[in-house]
């Protein structure tokens, strides 16, 4: 079951469970579409895996299997764009 983490690890943008702007790798590292494309070039900085759109869990299933509340933020990620 996907965790559906609530934020972008790079810019800390909120990514609710229904967001179609969330991108993940196979380890479920989570980034917004803007950071995934513009900062990371579609590659996860943690595992070098491909970043793909996170599927949306149907709202009825969220009651039984809620999204994660674990926030992961790496402020060094945004520095990659400047560098």
UniProtKB/TrEMBL annotation:
It comes from the Bacteria. The lineage of its organism: Bacteria, Pseudomonadati, Pseudomonadota, Alphaproteobacteria, Hyphomicrobiales. It comes from Ancylobacter defluvii. This is DUF1272 domain-containing protein. It holds the Pfam family DUF1272.
């Amino acid at each position: 079951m996907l965790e559906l983490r609530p934020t972008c690890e790079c810019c800390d943008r909120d990514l609710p469970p229904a967001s179609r702007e969330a991108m993940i790798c196979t380890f479920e590292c989570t980034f917004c579409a803007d950071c995934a494309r513009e900062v990371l070039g579609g590659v996860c900085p943690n595992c070098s895996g491909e970043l793909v759109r996170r599927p949306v869990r149907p709202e009825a299933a969220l009651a039984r299997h809620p999204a994660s509340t674990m926030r992961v933020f790496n402020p060094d990620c945004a520095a990659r764009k400047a560098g």
